[in-house]
Amino acid sequence: MPNTLPASPGTATPVAEAGHSVDLETLETIQQRVLWLSTSMIHHANRIRPNPTGLKVGGHQASCASMVSIMTSLWFEQLQPGDRVSVKPHASPVLHGINYLLGELDEKYLTTLREFGGLQSYPSRSKDPDTVDYSTGSVGIGATAPIWGAMARRYVETTTGGVGTGRQYSLVGDAELDEGAVWEAILDPGIADLGEVVWIVDLNRQSLDRVIPNIAANRLEKMFDAAGWQVITVKFGKLLEELFTRPGGQALRTRILDMPNPEYQRLLRCSADEVRTRLPGNGPGSAEITAMIAGLDDDTLTAAIRNLGGHDLSALTAAYRQIDDTRPTVIIAYTIKGYGLPTQGHPQNHSSAVGGRIRLTRRRSGHGPGVPVGPVRCRLRGRPAV
C-alpha cells in the first residue's frame, strides 16, 4: 500500500459506540447471502443457463465481491426512505441480490442476468424489474448523477416543497476517478454545501488486468479535501487495529503502509507459512514482526492480512456516523477485489469466473446448492419510488 499516510483525523476506526443497536452478526450473515447471490447469478448465466452460441455471457464476480460489505452495511443499516444510491456498473448483481432479499425482486429473475428481457448488465431504471435509483454504465456519469439529483431535489423542494432532501450516495470504483467528468463535477462551486452528497470509493487497487503499482491514495484524499469535501478513510479492520496495539504492532503497521501494492496483493494469495516468511520483510522492524506473528495461529494470520476497512462492517458503520451534513463527503474504503472468493487479490480476476470452484464458494458462504437463499428480515425502512 504505497504512498499512504498514517491515519488522519478523518480515519474511521472500527469501535462501536455505547448503545449502538446494529447487530453485526446479523449483518455478517446477510453479507454472506449477498456474496453468494451475486456470485451464483453470474455463474448461472455463464455455466448453467443454455447457451446455444457458446459465447461468453460475462459478468464481474470479483468486482461484485469487493462491494458486498459496503452495500450490505449501507442497505441494511444506514439507508433512510428518502435516500438514493448510484451503484457502480459492475456491482449490479449485488444490487439485484439485495433487492431480492428485501422482497423487491421476484426469485424468477435471479437466473436471467444478461438475458434478453432479464436483469441488465448494469443498473438500469428503464429495463431492470427491481428498484434502481440511477442508471449507470457510462463511465463517470453514474458517479456524478447523484450530485445533479441533489441539486434538482433542492430546487423542487425550494419551489414547490414536499420532496425532502435525503442523502445521495455514489458507489464508485477507484478507476472511475480517472475520468475527467468526475473531477469537473467535484470541483463545481455550486455543490460546496450539498451535505446530502456522499461518495464511497471502492479502493481495491486493481484495474482490468493488473495490480496498480501506485494508486497514491493520499493524493486522492488531498484532491477531495482541496475541493472542500469531507474525507473519511476506512483503511484497516478491527483485527488489524487490535494487532497494531500489541508489541511489534507499530512495526507491522509501518510495514503494511510502506508495502508496494503488488507485494501486498501477492500476500493475499499466500498460505500461512508463506505469509510468515514474506510479511516481516527486510526492514528495521522485521524481527519485531516475526516475533509478533509467531504467536498467531494460521487462520488468524491469514485473516489479518485480508482485514481491510472496506470489509469490516463495524468500521463502515463508524464511517457513516462521521458524515458531515454541511458539505459533500467521500468515504475512501480500502477493499480487496474478489474478497471472499477463491480469486481474491489475483491480478487477472477482473473478468475471471469462479467456475469449477463454485462449490467451494458456496460452502464458504454457508449455503446449499441453487441460487435462491430466501429473503431476510432487516431494519431497512421502505423507500418510496423516485
From TrEMBL:
| Gene3D superfamilies in UniProt | 3.40.50.970
Q: Which UniProt keywords apply?
A: Oxidoreductase, Pyruvate
List each copy of the Transketolase N-terminal domain by range. 87-238
- EC category name: oxidoreductase
Named from the GO MF annotations, one term is: pyruvate dehydrogenase (acetyl-transferring) activity
Q: What is its EC number?
A: 1.2.4.1
A single Pfam family it belongs to is Transketolase_N
Q: What is this protein called?
A: Pyruvate dehydrogenase E1 component
Name the source organism: Rhodococcus wratislaviensis
